[in-house]
Design a protein that fits this description.
With about 450 residues, this protein is α+β, with helices and mostly antiparallel strands. It is built from 18 helices and 12 strands. Helix content is about 50%, strand content about 20%. Helix 1 crosses helix 14 and helix 2 crosses helix 14. The chain starts with a helix and ends with a helix. The relative contact order is 0.17.
Length: about 450
């Protein structure tokens, strides 16, 4: 039966090539536009979700009022020990400093100048207790970040600095940051295999700050200054709610007021990690891209749905406009014993075939669209067929039913006698189906 439906559908498509081409290309354009938008929205909404327990991770940032008002994504360095000692319901905490600097690789005869590198941070081993899962290819955080002048690199960054050599040969290599900060590679980690705002590639030991001239830039246990590069994150215990943590911020603000020399009050704010990627007020990190705009993503999703619906409407209108041509076919089939259910199945099969061809055609259109509109596409977005197969399957099912069901029920409802006289469609102009078709137009 399926083979019969397929053969008849192919014959009808070939017999009416121009009409079929309009249907196929119309649906293909709608599906490709919908697919491009789906890829963008899914890419943006997927940020940071691969982090372990990311719904339990929060950032504490500064919210000033008084003689100075505004938000700052950083905190004083004194916040870390205070929260560690006084907050309840906290599993682990980490304070780190995002950083950017010129990088040189000392060689035997010359220095390899790699220019300014952005994704650097001074961290402690606690960073990897809050954020994960990082795959340690060589070394461990406690041993590799506990001493001054140690640096852990991602494998990709290590290859950029030193070339494609075995992992163990990276260990002990030297890197010069800002002309005089000589660091030694102590471990190698793999980059996180998902989209995340934590794009750090050089993890410099925080012990380096106290042992170098940088201690004046990042003083420890300090309440007198706030730098946007000083980030503080906590991972809550499974039973701790966001409100439980927010209720404890008042004590933090009180301590700041007692120790700060500023005339402004700092009413610290709690921000879930899941919201950081979309927060235009505080931003993400100093080296990060601009946050995504949730209302725009919602609008794009609505646009994608409308494009798909418009493609289906065009399909319905074109099919019902061909009703006079199909009327005799329906009449002959009914006279020969075909019931309405089989006719509906035949027309649904035709719409499914058209949709399937449209989906195949939409794939290169999507690839071309991503290239042509590259300046509007988020950096890092890739189109891999295996990752969108469930979405394409859903599109195939929905469009086949949505676009094919109405024409199928209309055409299969023709009475044999009227159909054979070509009167069925003329009579249907006065029916509710004709009204619906005009409404869709």
């Amino acid at each position: 039966m399926f083979r019969h439906y397929l053969m008849v559908s192919l014959r009808n498509l070939w017999r009416n090539r121009f009409h079929s081409a309009i249907n196929i290309f119309g649906l293909a354009i709608g599906i490709s536009a919908c697919l491009v938008i789906f890829l963008i929205v899914r890419f943006e909404l997927g940020y940071n979700q691969g982090l372990a327990d990311y719904t339990r991770i929060y950032r504490i940032h500064s919210s000033f009022s008084g003689i100075f008002s505004g938000l700052n994504r950083g905190v004083p360095t004194g916040v870390a020990p205070f929260v560690r000692e006084n907050f309840k319901g906290v599993e682990s905490v980490t304070l780190f400093h995002t950083h950017s600097n010129n990088v040189k690789i000392p060689l035997a005869a010359e220095k390899k100048d790699l220019g300014r590198q952005q994704a650097l941070a001074f961290v402690t081993p606690d960073y990897f207790h809050v954020f994960g899962p990082y795959q340690w290819l060589y070394g461990q955080p406690e041993q590799s970040l506990s001493k001054p002048f140690q640096v852990v690199l991602t494998q990709e960054k290590a290859k950029l600095y030193f070339g494609d050599i075995p992992l163990d040969q990276f260990i002990g290599k030297e890197i010069i940051y800002r002309d005089s900060l000589l660091m030694t590679v102590s471990a190698i980690v793999a980059s996180l295999p998902f989209t995340t705002d934590l794009e750090i590639t050089d993890f410099l030991s925080q012990a380096t700050l106290e042992a170098s001239w940088l201690k004046t830039n990042y003083p420890a246990n300090d309440w007198t200054s706030v730098n946007s590069s000083t980030q503080f994150f906590i991972k809550a215990q499974p039973t701790t709610t966001q409100q439980d943590l927010a209720d404890q911020l008042e004590s933090l603000s009180k301590t700041y007021k007692e120790n700060s020399t500023w005339g402004a009050e700092n009413n610290f704010a709690l921000q879930p990690l899941s919201e950081i990627h979309y927060d235009f007020d505080t931003g993400i990190f100093d080296f990060s891209r601009e946050p995504a705009h949730l209302p725009t993503l919602l609008t794009l999703s609505i646009v994608a749905l409308l494009l798909l619906i418009i493609g289906c409407i065009n399909f319905i209108n074109l099919e019902t406009a061909q009703a006079v041509r199909r009327a005799k076919e329906v009449g002959v089939r009914k006279v020969l014993g075909s019931d309405r259910a089989r006719l509906i199945a035949q027309f649904i099969a035709e719409s499914t075939l058209i949709t399937f061809i449209s989906v195949l055609l939409a794939l290169p259109l999507t690839e071309g669209g991503l290239v042509y509109f590259a300046e509007f596409v988020p950096k890092g977005l890739t189109f891999e067929l295996v990752n969108v197969l469930p979405f394409l399957g859903l599109i195939l099912l929905l469009v086949s039913l949505l676009a094919g069901a109405y024409p199928a029920f209309v055409l299969s409802s023709f009475l044999p006698a009227l159909a054979l006289k070509n009167a069925a469609y003329a009579n249907s102009n006065q029916s509710r189906s004709a009204f619906l078709r005009k409404t869709l137009i």
